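Sat 14:20. Reprocessing the chain from the morning session after the first attempt stalled halfway. Input below, unchanged.
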Amino acid sequence: MLGATTAYLEVMLRSYDATANESAGGTIWFDNAQVWNAAALGNNQTSMPYCELVSPQAPVQWLLSGLLGDLPAPAYVALGVYLASWPTSSVLNVALGRGAQSSATARLVGNSTGFNLAGGGVTSLLDPASYGGWYVATAPGSGGWNPRAFSPLASDQPGVYHLLARLLTQETGGNVGSVEVRVDTMQRQTAWYGQGGDVTSLADLLGSYYGPFSFPFTQGNTWTVVDAGQAQLPPFAGGALSDPTQTYLTPRPQIADLASNSVLAQASWQLLLPVDGSLVLGVVNNPSNGPFTVAGQWLWNYVDGLLVNRAAQGGGGDGPAWTLSVEASSVPNPAHAGGGPGTQGTGSINANSGADPYLTLDPTASQVLPNGGGPNTPGAVNVLAGYISDGTASGNVGAIAGEVRYSPLYLYPR
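Finished this time. Tokens:
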């Protein structure tokens, strides 16, 4: 029985077989789950509709397999987002990263769960505009707040990431600049909250990595996509006899408010953005002197490195390009794309790259096997994660549609 103050419900599906000889080694698939309102059954309600309180406001994690070739090669990637209204003087932030290694256990996107150093005072609030339909909040104070979204084994997803999070501070005025954020990665013998779930105990703590603080907020009471900094997993070198399947890593943003002990902060999704394989990163402007508002249409970003190989063979003048098109449907149309870099005063929509000029895919990316097994090349999978967010308003992330094209290097003479 749920009380009137219930914030959210987590459903766990569990199966077991009392007669092992009947279905030993069998496989079960759970396609979905349905929760019934038992209190309404007495009102001639014999069935319930299938409903989800899940918002599309989330980063994405993609897997690409079946790539041909023997060397990493440039690719074309189209990233599309539907814009109900994107007026002039607006910005979109775009990021897509590929990890240098792939892992079947990698989890790069998650929702923040509450935890603070005092062991209490965290609330969960429903919000249809947030990832998963809810967010968590507490007053971080100067001691810091550590909302968590990941706690993998040290063997699960080794690599170098940037930890991004959708955060909000309720500070206002000059106090907004007093809220600081950094990466804090703990290595422990147990996951999430430590031995026995005792948030005040650090008896199983093996080590902590702290990144430098930054002051990312420029506005109060506004959701902001914050880059908390670099998170290397594992954060420390392991010995020859270390077993990465026996320790856990918990990377999370640490938020401290140097101005107040009572003003709330809020946390929604978190993203481990891979940066050690290939990284496409940019800012797209609809400038202040732009000709129109993009409304009820798709904005497609085409980050194209396919001509780089031709340039290397004497094609002359060919190279990577970031072009754009506005479409009425969720289908990319690079044939009539155009444009390039610019500013908020350029007069037309423009895209500006801030990292690699194009996405590189690797058909030989090492695959980390489950349970701490070593790298394995056959069956390699490229693991990508990224987002497109509103850079000026509420830090909302749009649902991304994507298309990737890849040309193996062995097709080009060397």
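Helices lie at 20-23, 308-312.
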